[in-house]
Specification:
It is built from 9 helices and 17 strands. The chain is an alpha+beta fold. The relative contact order is 0.14. It binds fe (ii) ion. The site of fe (ii) ion (FE2) has 6 residues, from strand 10 and strand 14.
């Protein structure tokens, strides 16, 4: 079967008048980390992000340092406090390295803040204008699950590299980009019984619609279970699956996350590539560790997903998983946690028509995660 690679995103019918929060895309993701300089080196040299901008003591930022990295449409900001107390320290102390801000690109940051706070969102900070010689940016922000926030970024009057206050950053070294294109979806883990609360938040406060749901019958092994719903904005560019733990015989990976992150937070960031075999080959060569499913997965996978364009052998060698839905198929692979606590990880995904999230792989994946949990003594 030949798959149409240009299959459009599924239309979620939200009448124009009701999309009160038009989102142009993910603007950037900010992580609070223990050592931004060394994290930047990791994201540059292992993941192929390119250095873009910097703020710190040299730019007049006396309490924190931030490095901005970019690969195609993905922008990461790595921030570390330079002082011994303050909100950044609280975040770091409580959560370890993790995502603080999922920033969304909008046309009007003031309207975005008003529309969401008037529907019940808690303000993280009200609209503020920041200016430099390259123009002005308007930022505002609301709180979401845990200590995570959504920043609205309006940059139509700005020509600078990133945001006012940053200067160009051109360190020596670095490694070539490896084909990461954009953020496909970002998953939040929330506590027991909180999935529906946060799905309702995205529906009511941000005008999102539910794409798909999975319950513990879909996603369970002998030991663990979770429930998940996928929320999407009107134009389908922003997709936020929300997971909560479900009762199992042993501790689920979601519970383990919540325990170590000490609350709700971003579990994984899925980044899209047009050539997952090349991207993952390169990542593995640079030392990134991925979850491995048993070789027997590949004995039957084509019976389940049918014909695919790729040879099975490189997929098996790399441990790339395959799933199919009504619209096509997808290839995906998950890293082990990329921080010290068993919390945040990345997914690499290549969509060939499919708009779903790899449900057919969940069982094999969970069993792989449980083997890792057993090694950590947290199962
Ligand atoms: Fe995912």
């Amino acid at each position: 079967m030949t798959m149409d690679r240009t299959t459009p995103q599924p239309e979620i019918v939200v009448p124009e008048a009701e999309d009160f929060l038009p989102l142009l895309g993910t603007d950037h993701v900010e992580l609070i980390v223990g050592n931004a300089k060394q994290s930047a080196y990791y994201y540059m040299n292992a993941w192929g992000y390119q250095p873009l901008a910097f703020k710190g003591l040299e730019t007049g930022s006396s309490d924190s340092v931030s490095y901005v990295l970019r690969q195609d449409k993905i922008t990461l900001v790595l921030t570390t406090p330079l002082v011994s107390d303050g909100p950044l320290n609280d975040h770091l102390n409580r959560h370890g390295d993790g995502v603080k801000a999922v920033a969304l690109w909008v046309d009007d940051a003031e309207k975005s803040w008003k529309e969401t706070t008037s529907r019940g969102a808690v303000s993280a900070f009200p609209p503020e204008t920041r200016e430099d010689a390259d123009g002005k940016v308007v930022l505002s922000a609301i709180e979401t699950y845990g200590d995570t926030i959504h920043v609205f970024v309006e940059r139509k009057a700005y020509n600078g590299l990133f945001l006012p206050g940053y200067q160009p950053w051109n360190p020596s070294g670095g490694s070539p980009a490896l084909g990461l294109k954009f953020i496909d979806h970002m998953v939040g883990n929330v506590g027991w019984g909180e999935m529906n609360t946060w799905c309702e938040f995205y529906a009511k406060v941000m005008g999102f619609a539910q794409l798909i749901s999975f319950d513990d019958k879909d996603i369970s092994t002998d030991y663990t279970a979770l429930m998940s719903k996928v929320m999407s904005n009107g134009n389908g560019r922003i997709k936020f699956p929300i997971n909560e733990p479900a009762e199992g015989r042993k501790k689920s990976q979601i519970e383990e996350y919540i325990d170590f992150y000490q609350g709700a937070g971003v579990q994984h960031i899925a980044v899209a590539t047009d050539n997952i075999i090349e991207t993952v080959t390169e990542l593995q060569g640079r030392g990134i560790e991925f979850l491995q499913v048993p070789g027997t997965y590949y004995d039957t996978v084509l019976d389940r997903v049918g014909e695919i364009d790729e040879d099975l052998e490189p997929l098996r060698d790399l441990g790339i998983l395959i799933d199919r839905d009504d619209e096509g198929y997808l290839l995906q692979i998950f890293t082990k946690p990329v921080v010290d606590r068993p919390t945040m990880f990345f997914e690499i995904i290549q969509r060939k028509g499919a708009q779903s999230f790899g449900k057919g792989n969940f069982k094999a994946l969970f069993e792989a995660i449980e083997r890792e949990q057993a090694l950590r003594g947290t199962l």
